[in-house]
């Protein structure tokens, strides 16, 4: 249907949002698809391994959604955190309402908290964990834009300033080793 709208001249191109890399790979076969929105963050690294090269080759923009894994990579959630009844981090923690990959990026809550504690030890003094998590995503040149959430003006400003923060490439191996050890075995091949 979208291609018909392109043929009619109503739009030039379009983008899609996907859950799985296989869906993204299928979508970019269509020349009118110019952007793919997908979960990509420290807890969901497989897109960089499988999809980014193909997207770059086809000049398809990548929009990283869920960059803070439902807030877990913000570093303020802990075992005592209680989520409101209508918050998906409460009612969808096991994927009963929709794809569990959209809640904490599909990572087991306790395992995610363990990884966050290890990540916190790597954060430079002048950064927060959420800034580190966003900057990590922006280190991938295939990513066109990141869409983090914000609940107040200061979070919006912090998110906007991440692009200008210092290079963190010296931390990539350590960050990725935490992923390899704690997260990858459970989620890497699911999406």
Description:
The protein is of the alpha/beta class and about 190 residues long. The chain has one domain: TIM Barrel (Alpha-Beta Barrel). About 40% of the residues lie in helices and about 10% in strands. It is built from 9 helices and 4 strands; from the N terminus they run H-E-H-E-H-H-E-H-H-H-E-H-H. It has a 4-stranded parallel beta sheet with strand order 1-2-3-4. Helix 2 links the parallel strand 1 and strand 2. The chain is globular, with a radius of gyration of 17 Å. The mean pLDDT is about 95.
Please give a quick description of this structure.
With 191 residues, the protein is an alpha/beta fold. It is built from nine helices and four strands; from the N terminus they run αβαβααβαααβαα.
Can you tag this structure with a few keywords?
191 residues; TIM Barrel; 11% strand; 39% helix; alpha/beta
Strand content: 5-15%
CATH C-level name: Alpha Beta
- Order of strands, main sheet, comes to 1-2-3-4
Structural class: alpha/beta
By DSSP (H or I, 4+ residues per run), the number of helices equals: 9
Provide the CATH architecture. Answer: Alpha-Beta Barrel
Question: Kindly state the mean pLDDT as a whole number?
Answer: 95
Distance between the termini: 26 Å
Order of helices and strands: HEHEHHEHHHEHH
Provide the CATH topology.
TIM Barrel
